[in-house]
Specification:
289 residues, mainly beta, Immunoglobulin-like, six-stranded mixed β-sheet, 3 helices, flat
């Protein structure tokens, strides 16, 4: 018969660390039933005595077919010794009749052993490894789109307290002929778009990157290159290139039913188009002038 079930697991790796180190929490959901489920919301909380470093603690998925699974991660830093029990994560979802259900994961625990030497940031032998605990992530919010929709990427950078100011440059390289519609990004020749910003210690910054596709296909790639350094030390900069696969379809797939569309996705799409038209007119005006 038909069964609707979602399994939610929460795990910590490594689950035993030294004081001051970080552990990565992985949350994974799997549709273990026989029917498709929709409107899945997964959320987790971080105990107040642990420090959030990077990643995401909640995520929404439009639908999951039977046996489909998804996972996401975040990392936390633990500065006190002891055993920390992390609360269960929760997920809500709708079955095919539209009834909502809530599931909880099991708890996860992290053991923190006392670190014999407690270095103060000033006496560390290699400060750059300490400092690179800042985190920079590029992930696809919307990478499977219909022609005419924008591809949405989110770039998040967090600077840890106690660090100097973090200087970040982001270079987005979309497929040839595509354009980046985010106002922060300036075109810097050869189809590259760049922006720079500074992040004070203890502050995070999210940048939404909108990319306008100009052709259909399922194996496009967007490259995001992120370069950052701290304080007055450009010599110790970190440089990462991340690649995200993008799909552009001619028309909505069958899985996008009217129900999921009406969740408000039509208006942002329209607003985005309006914004692009606005950008184009500005660009044309500038060209004439």
């Amino acid at each position: 018969g038909k069964q609707t079930t979602l399994s939610l697991t929460k795990s910590a790796s490594p689950h035993s660390i030294k004081q001051g180190q970080t552990s990565t929490i992985t949350l994974s959901v799997e549709n273990t039933g026989t029917t498709e489920i929709t409107d899945i919301d997964v959320s987790d909380t971080i105990p107040p005595d642990l420090t959030f470093v990077s990643g995401e603690t909640s995520k929404a998925y439009t639908s999951l077919r039977p046996k489909d699974s998804r996972e996401f991660q975040y990392s936390i830093q633990l500065n006190e010794a002891g055993t920390f029990n992390l609360d269960p994560a929760t997920a809500t979802y709708a079955d095919e009749d539209g009834n909502y259900h809530t599931v909880e994961s099991k708890t996860a625990a992290i053991t923190v052993i006392p670190s014999t030497d407690q270095p103060t940031p000033h006496t560390t032998k290699n400060p750059s490894t300490e400092i690179s605990t800042a985190s920079v992530h590029l992930h696809g919010e919307k990478t499977d789109v219909v022609m005419g929709e924008d591809v949405l990427l989110k770039l998040s950078a967090v600077n840890i307290i106690g660090n100097p100011t973090m200087h970040v440059q982001v270079i987005i390289i979309p497929p040839s002929g595509w354009s980046v519609a985010s106002s922060e990004f300036a075109k810097s020749g050869a189809g590259q778009y760049t922006t720079t910003y500074d992040i004070e210690p203890g502050v995070g910054r999210d940048i939404e990157v909108r990319i306008v596709p100009n052709q259909i296909g399922d194996d496009f790639q967007v490259q995001g290159r992120i370069i950052y350094y701290f304080g007055e030390d450009p010599g110790a900069r970190e440089d990462y290139t991340l690649t995200l696969p993008i799909k552009v379809r001619a028309e909505p797939g069958v899985e996008q039913t009217a129900g999921t569309e009406s969740k408000g996705s039509s208006t942002p799409g329209f607003a985005a188009v309006a914004a692009i038209v606005g950008l184009l007119t500005v660009y044309l005006r500038r060209k004439r002038a």
